[in-house]
Amino acid sequence: MNKFNKNLSFSKEIVRINIGIGELDDLLGGGLPRNSVTLVSGTPGSGKSIMCFHYIDEGLKNGEKCLYLTSDERIESILKQSSELGFNFGPAIEIGHLKFMYVDLDKRSIHKEIDDEIKNNDYTRVVLDSLTPIAEVPVWLSDVHEIAPTEHSKMVKDMPLGSTPATRTHVRHILSILSKKNCTAIVTSEVPEGSRSLSRDTISEFLVDGIILMDLDMTMDRRKLTIRKMRATKHTLKPHDITISEGGIQFL
Amino acid sequence: MQNDPIEFILDDLLKLDDILGCMVASKTMISVMPDQNKFDPHVLELWDIIKRAMDDVFVVIREYSQTGLGEIEFRLQDYEVLFYILPDTENALVSIIPALANKGLLEVEMENARQEIIKIMGEKENKRLINA
User: Fold this and answer.
1) Domain count, chain B
2) pTM of the model as a whole
3) Closest-CA residue in chain B for A226?
4) Is there a contact between B62 and A221 if contact means CB atoms under 8 Å apart?
5) What is the domain range of residue B44?
6) In A, which residues are within 8 Å of B86 by CB distance?
7) What is the ipTM of this complex?
8) Which residues of B touch A224 (CB under 8 A)?
9) Which DSSP state fits A101?
């Protein structure tokens, strides 16, 4: 029994990556586990992108190299939104510490483009904002190749478009790319208003290492943040009151 | 949340003997809830099942709030759960009381609390409009 215990490494210290929101980092025992992928999910306007801004901003303060992948919004619009909240990413972009990359969903090489960018650079922080439209794009994976399905594709019979196995394979591959090398990633996912799901695809929540849920009650003008899951981390499941103002997310 | 006027209202409700727990909630979120340690311990033991039943009631509230639905209540084991809907919203003031409680006074207190909450929300909205 002792011999068995010796081989287990439960005590191995986990390196934590600060998100940049003091209270949240404290709740997570210091931050996100290194090389993990965390899903930040919530309804539109709940503060998912702002969480990403904090994460990137903290990385830049530490002198880290960061990548922000966007599939929904134009880069100019993200920079404008972040600047209004007090995040000034301009200088970091100029010196090459931060790259915003638009993931063109019309192209059939989504995985390869992201993979190449991460492989060829020394990013430590990656944000994918958001996973939802990418997960919905019909891309087939065969080994390392991406295949756009046609009516005659053999795989369409095995994994019909939009089927759980097809989406799972696609999402799992994206998430594995994001945590390559020394990267620690945050991905956002939209959930429809009134839904109790943790992602639009209802699959990614099972594939990620952590889930942070952002809730919004417009009637009562309340926002809540809940850590639903975080690998190798003891954390409370209690929702926390937050507010969003200049400077980003603040705990109340 | 510190100095939250709606939480003060809920705290006052909780001081009544037969209010075992209370909150302002919607289907997706409990927006304001007093310290759960102030809830009756028996309610906390049954919290999971009460919460699930509440979620189902909020589906009905969501559907019929706009048509003037005012109150809903259901009985679960030894408890009753009262929903006082905030007009035209998906939110409700929710209280858990003993099934055999005398509801006369409680209904008055619940209605007063609902009106106070509506007033606070109205003032907040007005302030926001002025600042916009």
Assistant:
1) 1
2) 0.84
3) B29
4) no
5) 5-131
6) 219
7) 0.77
8) 29, 31
9) E
